[in-house]
Amino acid sequence: MTNGVDQPAGGSPPTDEPVRILVVGGLDPGGGAGLLRDVVTAAALGAEAHAVGTAWTEQGEGVHEVEPRAPAAIREAVRRAAEARPAAVKIGMAVDPATADAILEGLAGYGGPVVVDPVLATSRGGPLWSGEPREILRLGRRATLLTPNAEEAGKLVGRPVSTLSDAAAAGRAVVDEQGVAAVLIKGGHLAPAASEVTDLLVTALGTRRLVRPRVAGPSPRGTGCALATAIAVELGRGRELAAAVESAGLWLAGAIAAARDVRGERRL
Length: 268
Fold this sequence. Notes:
- The chain has one domain: UDP-N-acetylmuramoyl-L-alanine:D-glutamate ligase, CATH 3.40.1190.20.
- Helices cover 34% and strands 23% of the residues.
- The protein is an alpha/beta fold.
- Strand 4 (88-91), helix 3 (97-106) and strand 5 form a beta-alpha-beta unit.
- It is built from eight helices and eleven strands.
């Protein structure tokens, strides 16, 4: 098992050949976020996705209902999918600590890159994780990369994260104190607002700023899901971590610029 951040994922050189990734997460029936967004993102990047659902959600202004799948069933589904040796794994909604443990057990024999998007709530505020926020770090410690937004990062370290300085300190705490190999704190909601978005990639080797254009207008739903999936695709192609993150971020900026309105909501 490996979660190293300095070697090409899977030990293979970068390639443009199609890759197959495993995506694990919850189902948003509208497809704006979650597992369906993961599958669409992989396809947009020329990859294939094998999906394992953790829960079915019913969503409106908040989460109306979450129907979790049995952890034992998730464990076996992940195990079978991992045995097929996907190029990378992306984990989104993990429901609760029991489900997180089931995912980890299913991945026990898998040695490739794993990207974890620590989904705690929907963009509308409805809860999607029923444990204490820091309990999701059991997945983070298995990951090649953890991808919290500013609010999620704040909950992981127990203090507000609103500036780049806050984000850098939070990322360093998660890496140095919680044993996570690498953290990408997404900068879309960090002050000050400007024409650029600065994401912070924090590893044991240091902190790197990754800057991409800020697209004017409201942010579409599912951008966090899409970014984490895009990074998994790039890692699966054998790219080094920082290059994978940068490539995925630039792709996302283009996808946001091309987003369309669907029933009053911006969609990628």
